[in-house]
Amino acid sequence: MQVLVVGATGGTGKQAVEQALQRGHYVTAFVRDPSKLGIQHPNLTVFTGDVLNLETLLPAVRRQDVVLCALGSRPGQKDETVAQGTVNLMDVMKRCGVHRLLVVSSLGVGTSYEEAPLPSKLIIKTLLKGSIDEKEKQEKAIRESDLDWIIARPTRLTDGPLTGHYRLGEHLPFSTFALPSISRADVAAFLLDQLESEMYLHKAVTITGD
Hints:
Layout: E1 2-6, H1 11-22, E2 26-31, E3 44-48, H2 54-61, E4 66-69, H3 81-96, E5 100-104, H4 112-115, H5 118-125, H6 129-143, E6 148-154, E7 156-158, E8 167-169, E9 181-183, H7 184-192, E10 204-208
Parallel strand pairs: 1-2, 1-4, 2-3, 4-5, 5-6, 6-10, 7-9
Antiparallel strand pairs: 8-10
Helix pairs in contact: 1-7, 2-3, 3-6
C-alpha cells in the first residue's frame, strides 16, 4: 500500500516508517527537517513541508491509500500545530480522495482520563496538560470528520523493543497506582495492523504494554 506518515521524525512516526517499509509498503514521510529522519530505502519518499501550510501537504497526500498521523508536542508544551495541522491534513485528504486516517493520541484524552491510574492522572493534569489539551482539540476535529479514522491512545511511551504483546480497548482497567507504559514500536505496529482492518473503525482505543 501507499502509506503517508506525518510526523515521521518523532519516535512513533519513525517506527511507523521503518516497520511499514519492512512490511513491503511504499512509504512517504512528511517532515519539517529531513536530516532528522535518518532512514534510506528504495520504497521511501521524503517530502519536506509544514502541516500549517496546505500547499506543502498536497503533493504528499496525493495518491496515498492511508495516512498515519503521529504529530505530537514535547511534554509540558502546547504545540498548536497538532490540532490545526491535523485539521489541515484532513482537509487535504478530502480534496485528494484519501479516506483512511490512523492517529496517535494519548491516554488522558476523552473518556480515557477517568480510567487512567492515579499516577498517570497527576502527570496528565500537570506536566502533560498543554499537550493533552491540544490532543483533545485534535480528536474532536477527527470525530467530526467523515473520514475512516482510528485513534490509538497509548500510555507512557518508551523506546523499548517491538514485542507484539499489549492490551487495548475502548475501556481498559488499570491498577490504581500503576504507571503503565508501552513501546513506540508496539504502538506503530498496532496502527499498521489497521491499514485495512475494520475492527476499530471510528473508535479511540487505549493501548498499553502493561
